[in-house]
Amino acid sequence: MLDPSSSEEESDEGLEEESRDVLVAAGGSQRAPPAPAREGRRDAAGRAGGGAARPVSPSPSMLSEGRDEPERQLDEEQERRIRLQLYVFVVRCIAYPFNAKQPTDMARRQQKLNKQQLQLLKERFQAFLNGETQIVADEAFCNAVRSYYEVFLKSDRVARMVQSGGCSANDFREVFKKNIEKRVRSLPEIDGLSKETVLSSWIAKYDAISRGEEDLCKPPNRMALSAVSELILSKEQLYEMFQQILGIKKLEHQLLYNACQLDNADEQAAQIRRELDGRLQLAEKMAKERRFPKFISKEMESVYIEELRSSVNLLMANLESLPVSKGGPEFKLQKLKRSQNSAFLDIGDENEIQLSKSDVVLSFTLEIVIMEVQGLRSVAPNRVVYCTMEVEGGEKLQTDQAEASRPQWGTQGDFTTTHPRPVVKVKLFTESTGVLALEDKELGRVILYPTSNSSKSAELHQMIVPKNSQDSDLKIKLAVRMDKPPHMKHSGYLYALGQKVWKRWKKRYFVLVQVSQYTFAMCSYREKKSEPQELMQLEGYTVDYTDPHPGLQGGHMFFNAVKEGDTVIFASDDEQDRILWVQAMYRATGQSYKPIPAIQAQKLNPKGGSLHADAQLCPCSSEFTDADRFQKHGMDEFISANPCKLDHAFLFRILQRQTLDHRLNDSYSCLGWFSPGQVFVLDEYCARYGVRGCHRHLCYLTELMEHSENGAVIDPTLLHYSFAFCASHVHGNRPDGIGTVSVEEKERFEEIKERLSSLLENQISHFRYCFPFGRPEGALKATLSLLERVLMKDIATPIPAEEVKKVVRKCLEKAALINYTRLTEYAKIEGQCKTMNQATPARKLEEVLHLAELCIEVLQQNEEHHAEAFAWWPDLLAEHAEKFWALFTVDMDTALEAQPQDSWDSFPLFQLLNNFLRNDALLCNGKFHKHLQEIFVPLVVRYVDLMESSIAQSIHRGFEQETWQPVKNIANSLPNVALPKVPSLPLNLPQIPSFSTPSWMAPLYESTNGSATSEDLFWKLDALQMFVFDLHWPEQEFAHHLEQRLKLMASDMIEACVKRTRTAFELKLQKASKTTDLRIPASMCTMFNVLVDAKKQSTKLCALDGGQEQQYHSKIDDLIDNTVKEVISLLVSKFVSVLEGVLSKLSRYDEGTFFSSILSFTVNCSIPRAFSSQQKPGMDLADTYIMFVRQNQDILREKVNEEMYIEKLFDQWYSSSMKVICVWLADRLDLQLHIYQLKTLIKIVKKTYRDFRLQGVLEGTLNSKTYDTLHRRLTVEEATASVSESGGLQGITMKDSDEEEEG
After folding, report:
1. What is the dihedral of CA 707, 713, 716, 718, to 10 degrees?
2. Do β-strands 384-391 and 424-430 pair in parallel, antiparallel, or remain unpaired?
3. What is d(CA 501, CA 565) in angstroms, rounded to the nearest whole number?
4. Residues 1049-1061: pLDDT tens digits?
5. Distance CA 509, CA 524 (A)
6. Closest of 98, 519, 522 to residue 343, by C-alpha
7. 762: closest CA among 772, 752, 770, 750?
8. Is the alpha carbon torsion for 1116, 1121, 1126, 1128 positive or negative?
9. Nearest-CA neighbor of 769 among 856, 704, 866?
10. 180, 581, 654, 732 — which has fewest CB within 10 A?
11. Cα(1046)–Cα(1103) distance, integer angstroms
12. Which of helix, strand or coil describes residue 392?
């Protein structure tokens, strides 16, 4: 980039030479020569406008200090004189503009945010987050504010943007709005609450936070000038603004204001006419001497002269189109014919069309006020008198009636007339008393001849009375006020003698009439005539004071108007009148020469200040006092400087620079755009003083680029506009109608083009810092558009898209290095590089992980805030990201190489990067993404291998040492197996599951569950699969391979677990008792639960997504189902064996056996009859069995977790029990059951039926054919026993009865 400070010394030396050139030209001696070197320097005059003097260089001795002090004072004086001269031209532009208007369609600029306001904003948001405000907000809004505060408000890039002055409070608000729009869109829909309502509410809360509570109570302050600069300004506000811009004191402004007569529109219009005439003369002189600027082609020299003439003629036309005066609402300027108007623009045309007498007809307003009559004696006091008044040729008005004793009225009559010399008649009447009198009697009359210069106060006039009237001293007091029309510039009596008009020397009444801005006429009028008797157009005449002409009698003070072929001599009666006439005609002729009377040249105002008509010619008058004071302050050289002889290109450059410096330092975030008032003044200056448009925009571009290089935020659209104008001009497209191109303009344009190209490329390379968070809005996109325009060879030939793309690619490659370098500095990686070799591997990995988070944040911000600008080249933004990641690869690889073997702490880094890359369509499976996969493929494979081996070993060791105790609290009961651990990531990143308790086990914490080994197995398998799934491996083939392998591993591991459990169950069951003392141990229930859990987990751990879904799942599922069936069969067989033992005991009571009679006798005799009614002797066997069934049912129901398997078990147990009893009875079909056998079987059958029905066995299973057969047999045996046995069954029966007692 160009360093503007490199030419500091050259700038100071160049300034002195430039300042002297300009001020020599200001003295009127010669025009300042063009200085090509000026455009590349910042002169001291430009710096002085800010109020700061140029610093004095340190001196080695007092002697050098003594020499530097006069030079410094001289420089300051030169700068002051340049500023004063500029201010004279500026205030003239403001006082009487005739080309430009203040634009009303410019974009309104927002108030600038400064560092103090940014700090205050941070404090207010911090207070909100700390809960120190009264603003109520939900958690979602607080999270949004916290993110905004951490990411945006605390950003160094935002602080730099605020420091550069390119940031407004509205920018902060828009960034927040953009952030919350994304957040609100991601929120779930809420019934009755639209997202637009949420957005509006959040924005309102943001405004409340940013305003603060104390600001709401402050009264609004009065706006300063800078605060209203965006509005349309009055002349006074514009004067004040440019006093600040150019460093002009208030006293200096007041002196210049009075001396330049800025409040005198006629003087300002005359000044413009003189300036335009001087520019035309300068063009003619240039054409005559053939002293042209150097153009790119010789043919442009003649075109240049025509352009000068055309520009002046256009200004003349603009001036001509203005109204003559802005006073008098009833005045309407008489429009000339078009052919006449065109003649005025052709200066020096001998055949110009003359004015007609009707073109200079004036309109006057007269006010006649009759006060009173004095000396009325001829009329009785009680008689009625009145007055009439009339302007000859008009209507007659009458006063009210009054008594002759008090003839007073105060009546006003208003008249209009076109006569410059009207005749006013006022008559006094009394009412006639005679019967035959037709008219009232006239008592007297007075005839007046007022002019616009006549006294307007009330005066006594002698009245003419009829003959023989007694009122010889009759007087009337009245006032006649004749207003002067706006376009009547002067009037009065003069003697005149000319060659074409006024050919006889005599006194006439003259009026100087302004017909249009460029047309004035001297007209002589007679009484009661509206049209002039004779007239003379003043165009082309030169007025001057002359000596008295001895041969002319009448008049004392002479002056003349001279033109080729004509001379008109005028004379007035006194010097004061002559001065006023000469001043008025001097303004009208537009001549450059200013007439000064020879005798009083030292006394009069050299500008010909407007003297009042009633002023006396006295050295002590206010006019002379002001003139003396004015000259004393040394302002005369600036007022009288001829604008045509000054270098306005140089002066305008200073003015524009000072204005831009002032604009960038005001309270608005202008981005280089001028305010409407500043644009108006600069436009008017360029048009009035002939500053070429290309020069204006070249200077503007230079200043804007210099500010941009120094850190200011400049709108690229503004640069684009000025560059396009200059390019169009240099390539001959006439953007402002100027077809000539100077060599200097072309050279400067090429220099600026190269400099602008470097600036734009630098901004694009630093796009993250030049346009932080996409601010200013659309600026980056506009910068890219401008770059394309700058790269064009000319305005007609578009540059190939590939060339633009090549430049942008180069910039983005630089941007990747810049962004990564600054990011590493921010992350303090670079600062620790000397000690990185001594850092621990864990520390290195931690730093790289943090750096990866920052890299992702940078690229996400690029996508959010800058991707739209690069929408034309999305592949370039992807290349930029790949370059960015390539730089990160070096640090990442270094940190990963330092990790010990079989360390898995780097997996969070992979998941962090992979989750970002796989969701980016342009970066997914890109160069860096593939490199990342290549690094982590061996780690993943190695990790899975170790996990498989570890799980297999844990199964082998676990089942060897398994106690089969049910696990109630998994987290505290799992064995501590030395396995590779996967660490958890921070909460703000995607979570990789660690080996914590899986979520599917949460509902089982408080209930009996499987064994420690099985639960440990299922947990590890699930955690491993979830870990690999959460890796979201981007390469499909390897991801499918991993999934297949893990499903197969899970199938094998679960199969081993099921088989081990089946074997352990069978061994445990074999050792169990075969009597009614058998109670199912908890360990066997745990084994059953292991199979249940295996069934559940196989569905999740062994099923593949896709065509092979059932490949592993079906196999292991069948194995588990078969194992469960076998386990149920084994358990039922065990229960049936207990029942068979009971039945074998009953077999001893079979009829016909040896023990039958003995046992029957024993049973009947062993129990006393006294207890027969309370107890049921001999039922111990049945009761024991029933208790065995019930307790085992309860154990199974309580400790086995799968209801379906329990129901199957109970179904088989019930069916098998009934079948065994039925078979046992079938074997005794021919035998009658012993009463003990019958009672025992009835009780066992009935209680078994009821218990299994309560356990949920279905009616179809309960009332099977076996049970029906059994029921009929026992019913028959019961009936037989009730007949044969004397004691009966003691209440035991197959019938259902409510009276039956529970055993």
Report:
1. -70
2. antiparallel
3. 13
4. 888 888 889 998 9
5. 5
6. 519
7. 770
8. positive
9. 866
10. 732
11. 10
12. coil
